[in-house]
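Table S2 (continued). Query chain:
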Amino acid sequence: MNKYVKRYLVDAMGGMAQGLFASLLIGTIIKTLGQLLLKIGDNVVFQFLVDAGNFAAEAHVVGAAMAISIGYALKAPGLVLFSLAAVGATANTLGGAGGPLAVLVIAIIACELGNLVSKKTKVDILVTPLVTIISGVLLAVLTAKWIGLGASSVGNLIMWATNLHPFVMGIIVSVVVGIVLTLPISSAAICAALSLTGLAGGAAVAGCSANMVGFAVLSFKENRWGGLVSQGLGTSMLQMPNIIKNPKVWIPVILTSAITGPLSTCLFKLQMNGAAVSSGMGTCGLVGQIGMVTGWYSPVESAVAQGATAIVPGAMEWIGLVLISFVLPAVLTWAFGKLFRKIGWIKDGDLTLQN
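Corresponding output:
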């Protein structure tokens, strides 16, 4: 593999995924846990969990975590590494829904510019942070917004698909949102910006779950229980370096999302009437599933505006939620994976996560 592809896509993207997991995703899990516990009773500890999760998931914190992780993956010297915090915070904040992609591009450039001057002068403690921060923040100011808009333009496709027949819409929304979840783009931010609720929100949950649970099961041979948890409850973005090396590893997951999406919209008629941001979270901390359940009992205002009403879920809703979110993604991806391994499209080690 070309050394630049490995350095800037495989290594850097793998680092970024870990930074995202250690900030936004774990923060979302902590916050969701706190919110669930608060429903049991008002408690200072439960509120602390919500606050801690909110702090960890703030845009500037997430951006800093991703940029530092990218620098660490690129083996940046200390002063460059620490200076990337400001660069990542700026890029992610200005990049909006496409912030992660903006952080990836801008942090790599700022890191390499910092490396050029690192330890080259007697005043390294001034020069290296100065070059890294000024170049990175300037790039962010000039380009992050446009990188973010380009990345989030996928929302136009999603909104177009929501007007199609539920079967076709289920396929397109499930596949597209699932892909976005795994790419360095914020599917949650896009779904929130689009107010994606109702049947389309349910299809989005199906696609995200297919990617997360699918990759967790597909790569169980390589990554065992740690990989199952980190991908199934964390993020499928951890597989992006492996997808770049062998794009075929993504096909079983995409095929699965193309099946579970229309099953969600046409057979089970699952609707996301909770917060729209939950549509783009999948099984991350079970936020997608929790959002769907809370939406049944108490639809959010935007869902009510689209005609949603509170319901008491029956067996069909509960069975559908479990099948679409967990069982079918696991079984279908496992079956497709067995076929792909048999024909040689996926080989042992192709799905091993970076440490």
